[in-house]
Amino acid sequence: MNIDEQAIRTLVATWMEATARGSLDEVLELMDDDVVFLGPGRPPMRGKADFAAATRAAEGQNRIDGSADVQEVRVFGDWAYCWVQLTVAMHPLDGGAPTLRAGPAMSVLRKTQSGRWVILRDANMLAPVK
């Protein structure tokens, strides 16, 4: 595994850990300013500001934890893609039953001028687990 692939795997792990801690600022640092998130049944979420607004709107409702099993990372110079199998559990803070979602996600990443990898595009196909 080369240094770029390891850096991308670390980014995925950091995202999951920061999300579990509720560290929005840390998650925002892992994405490009022009990030776009695609998901089924919803319009594209464009930019860090939209992501932050959606996250803040949901604050205080759930504790989120999950796992990300990296299936594939391919690096092409300053561009890469990463396929991850995600499992996410949302535990309502009011004590309700948790919601479990799972499925694949595919991210396109780019390396910044400082050498950091950031997510530029993400297509997330999580679906409810019954």
Overview of the structural elements:
It contains 3 helices and 7 strands; from the N terminus they run H-H-E-E-H-E-E-E-E-E. The mean pLDDT is 95. The radius of gyration is 15 Å and the shape is globular. 28% of the residues lie in helices and 48% in strands. Strands 1, 2, 3, 4, 5, 6 and 7 form a 7-stranded mixed β-sheet that branches. It has 130 residues and is α+β, with helices and mostly antiparallel strands.
How are the SSEs placed, and which strands pair?
Layout: H1 3-21, H2 24-28, E1 31-38, E2 45-46, H3 47-58, E3 62-76, E4 79-92, E5 99-111, E6 117-124, E7 127-128
Parallel strand pairs: 1-6
Antiparallel strand pairs: 1-2, 3-4, 4-5, 5-6, 5-7
